[in-house]
Design brief:
- The protein is of the alpha+beta class and 275 residues long.
- It has a single domain (26-273), classed as Sortase (Sortase, Chain: A, Beta Barrel).
- The chain has helices at 2-46, 75-91, 182-187, 224-236; strands spanning 98-103, 110-114, 137-139, 145-146, 152-153, 159-163, 190-195, 198-211, 249-258, 264-273.
- An eight-stranded mixed β-barrel has the order 1-2-3-6-9-10-8-7.
- It is globular and about 75 Å long.
- The relative contact order is 0.14.
Length: 275
């Protein structure tokens, strides 16, 4: 009799744990769908049709050159970049903290980039200020991104860092882990970032794992030589060699996300072109 009671108690505990787990999973899925819905609606407000088709087609490798405006490649691509800049203008009244729009052609990365007063708020808040597990993509608050006047990268700080969660299902920066495979890089070589009156096609030159408190997150450099030294070291530490010329680099765009391994981060780094 006592053994039967113990078995029944154990059975009830297991069943209760199962129901609680199902409830937690259900709530989690509903929350993720809520976040997805928010970004879909924001994209429509900004004028996008879908995460993949709305982002400009990736220019051919020959059209991405480190020589001033040559970064923009074909005229058709330049037209699409103007559309990305318009997205920021369209939503900036409702979301005043928006600094830019960032996308990686052919991937799910097609999001607004926020600029807060610190590097904490947008970790767990959507662009409308609502607390949410997905959070937002956001610039390091110490970056000199002149979104107020719409001029984009102003050259005062040569390193722009964009943070984002490694969300499940490739949400936010969750797909960056695919860059650990060189074959994926070969199909997705550029990052596009746009402000109201400026847009940049940024060739990726390094993919690496770094420490969260390491010098990969250095923002200020004494001179161009120091910036070049940093870029060369980043290229050398890349998980695989990437043949990109650094000679006409005005700055560096870094996309940073967690890896699930303590203080280690995955960063994808691209060249900010000269005007």
């Amino acid at each position: 009799m006592e053994r039967n009671r113990l078995f029944q108690f154990f059975y009830l505990v297991v069943w209760a744990a199962f129901l609680v787990s199902c409830a937690v999973l259900g709530i989690r899925l509903m929350e993720l769908e809520e976040g997805d819905s928010f970004y879909r609606k924001m994209g429509k407000t900004a004028g996008s049709l879908s995460a993949v088709s709305s982002c400009p087609m990736q220019p051919a490798a020959a059209d991405v050159r480190p020589i001033g405006s040559g970064y923009f490649g074909l005229d058709a691509v330049t037209s699409e970049l103007s559309e990305l800049s318009l997205r920021v203008s369209r939503v900036s009244i409702e979301y005043p903290d928006i600094a830019a729009w960032l996308c990686i052609p052919g991937t799910s990365v097609d999001y607004p980039v926020m600029l807060g007063v610190d590097n904490q708020f947008y970790l767990d808040h959507l662009p409308d200020g609502k607390n949410h597990v997905l959070g937002s993509l956001f610039l390091d608050y110490r970056s000199h991104w002149n979104s107020l006047h719409g001029t984009g990268f102003d050259g005062n700080s040569p390193h722009l860092i964009v943070y984002g969660h490694s969300g499940s299902g490739g949400r936010m920066f969750g797909m960056l882990k695919q860059y650990e495979l060189q074959d994926f890089y070969r199909e997705h070589k550029v990052v596009i970032i746009a402000a109201p009156e400026a847009a940049y096609v940024c060739p990726i030159f390094s993919v690496r794992r770094v420490e969260a408190e390491g010098d990969a997150y250095l923002l200020e450099f004494e001179d161009n030589d120091a910036l070049m030294s940093y870029a060369c070291r980043a290229a050398e530490e890349s998980l695989y060699p990437i043949d990109v010329c650094l000679d006409h680099m005005a700055g560096i765009l870094t996309l940073s996300t967690c890896t699930g391994r303590g203080g280690q981060r995955l960063v994808v780094q691209a060249i900010l072109p000269q005007e």
